[in-house]
Amino acid sequence: MANIISDETIEYVGILAKIELSDEEKEQAKKDMGNMLDYIDKLNELDTEGVEPMSHVFPVDNVFREDVVTNGDDREKILSNAPEEKDGAFVVPKTFD
Amino acid sequence: MSLMKMTALELGRKIKSKEVSAAEAAKAAIAQINAVEKDINSYVTVLDEDVILKRAEQVQKAIDDGGISGPLAGVPVAIKDNMCTEGILTTCSSKILGNFKPTYSSEAVINLERAGAVILGKTNMDEFAMGSTTETSFYGPTKNPWNTGHVPGGSSGGSCAAVAANECFYALGSDTGGSIRQPSSFCGVTGIKPTYGTVSRYGLIAYGSSLDQIGPVAKDVSDCAAILETIASYDKKDSTSVKRDNYDFTGALIDDVKGMKIGIPKDYFGAGLDADVKNAVLKAVDVLKEKGAAVEEFDLSLVEYAIPAYYIIASAEASSNLARFEGVKYGYRTDDYESLHNMMKKTRSEGFGAEVKRRIMLGSFVLSSGYYDAYYIKALRTKALIKRAFEKAFESYDMIIAPAAPTTAPKLGDSLNDPIKMYLGDIYTISVNLAGLPGISVPCGLDRNGLPIGIQFIGNCFEEKKIIQAAYAYEQTREYAECGLC
Q1: Does the residue B135 lie in any domain?
Q2: Exposed, middle or buried: residue B468 (CB in 10 Å: 0-12, 13-18, 19+)?
Q3: pLDDT digits (tens, 9 = 90+) for B381-430
Q4: pTM score of the predicted model
Q5: Helix, coil or strand: residue A84
Q6: What is the mean pLDDT of chain B?
Q7: Can you give the pLDDT at residue B83?
Q8: B248 occurs within a structural domain
Q9: Domain count, chain B
Q10: CB B36 within 8 A of CB B485
Q11: Which of residues 30-69 of B touch A (CB under 8 A)?
């Protein structure tokens, strides 16, 4: 395996991805990511010098619209999916004292 | 002939001529679901019988009044569980959306309902469409109706199995790297991945937004053309939606391939391709040749770079798209937590399955500072080269023919242990998504074990009509093969 994923890297990726892994999962994730990067590194064989990166297959431009409200008032319906709601708002754990 | 053996268009005609009512069709579908679903598990959610029948009667009334007159009016359909359906559970086959009932329907579903579709339920899939076997579903794997010891393919495995097992007359799937065409091939049904931007993605729960497209799954090419004609639309709510000049896909149902130029990429028929699949596809090519098509081999190139580029791009987009699942607005929230961030982390860790976490983490890594250029930008440059290779091919050919997958359906449990091996199964479908092209998979025979094989027709952007015509012409030379579950 050419790519060795360190504990620090997997910890950092966990922070970026907001995913908490058990020690066992961490070991597996290190192995999986290493294997995947080894495989992905195949792209390095390819000379892409001077090739413009293509994010979309068709040229996409900003799509503008008039600044008018078109959706209805479905607050109740939307909140009905929330794990916790109160007084028309989503409830989250306390973030500061 | 049993009602359920009809194609969607055949049933639509019977409903129109009043030989069959929409309610009778719905009842026949429900009966078939009740008979085989315990063995197949095509659906995550089947709607209550009275809800389905009420809708069928409402559609029947609209047909009788002349309010709805399209070819699919009254025909029962199954919808992949990553398309929002108002008030109907939409789980993406994930624990994290186990209780999510959308407040609106996706544009493709609305277009179908306008045409008189009767929704039966929501079909099983790989969790968040990440997988090639439908085994990563939180709600258990779907089984291949041809042999329940095998997978149906994925990620639209539930939609394709439901069509093959006659548990619906047609279904909607979505295709990010082959998720319509590969399971269609494994289940012996027909599926189209349209040109990017043809069907609105509004209400499709995003996986890889620059690659995702919704498309039809059905028993034959005619059905697929009619369904695509119904769901395709320019939609302002999807900023990547494309306004097309021509949506008349059924106009291409012509039994004629004389003079068509077909390219066969040599690099698609080398190592790794199962002998039975190769023979079946080349036999189908011979049929087209006999019917007057000009067939030529060529080098497409770059084939081995499509999968690594895809996994960088799709995982990167997934890591961003799936950030919205954090236990605040909808879906699952962990029971036990200390603070906001701890709650979100635990919710996501408990709510997502292993494959989804793997891709979110890979995506976060390739987008992270220091690696962004080496991986993400490199993948986007590779994508540009792949697109160029296809453009060059289409200067010489009207279409490209390839297998839909290198093998037939693997056995249940054989794929998940080795992710990279599973990813390699998408080798003939993935580059089509990277280049935004349309592709259609059509059954072209069975392997030595009696499992279906699919042939894939790939067209240039916006040239669905060419591949529909060739696929239709090929289809006229053979009978639809039944899996025998009906």
Answers
A1: yes
A2: buried
A3: 999 999 999 999 999 999 999 999 999 999 999 998 888 888 899 999 99
A4: 0.97
A5: coil
A6: 97
A7: 98
A8: yes
A9: 1
A10: yes
A11: none
Place of tokens 């982390």: B345
Chain A touched by B389 (CB under 8 Å): no
Residues of B in contact with A45 (CB under 8 A): 305
Catalytic residue among B14, B80, B122, B383: B80
Question: What phi and psi values does residue B279 have, to the nearest 5 degrees?
Answer: -60, -45
Six-digit token string for B239? 């900023």
In a domain, B442, yes or no: no
- CATH of residue B248's domain is 3.90.1300.10
Predicted confidence (pLDDT) per residue in B206-226, tens digit: 999 999 999 999 999 999 999
CA dihedral (B40, B45, B48, B53) positive or negative: negative
Provide the domain limits for residue B103.
3-256
Check CB contact of B194 with chain A, cutoff 8 Å: no
Q: Which residues of A touch B327 (CB under 8 A)?
A: 83
Interface of B with A in 263-302 (CB under 8 A): 302
Residues of B in contact with A68 (CB under 8 A): none
B263 three-class SS:
strand
Domain contains B7:
yes
Query: Out of A19, A53, A63, whose CB is closest to B357?
Result: A19
Domains of chain A by start residue, with CATH: 7-45 (1.10.20)
Residue B417's pLDDT is: 83
- Is B159 one of the annotated active-site residues of the chain? no
Question: Is B239 within 8 Å of B376 (Cβ atoms)?
Answer: no
So what's the ipTM on this one?
0.95
- Mark whether B179 is an active-site residue: yes
DSSP strand E in A39-92: where?
A: 85-86, 89-90
Instruction: Please confirm, yes or no, whether B233 is among the known catalytic residues.
Output: no
Rounded CA-CA distance B335/B116 in Å is 42
What burial letters (b/e) apply to B11-49, b meaning 16+ CB within 10 Å? bbebbeeeebbbbbbbbbbbebbebbbeebbbbbbbbee
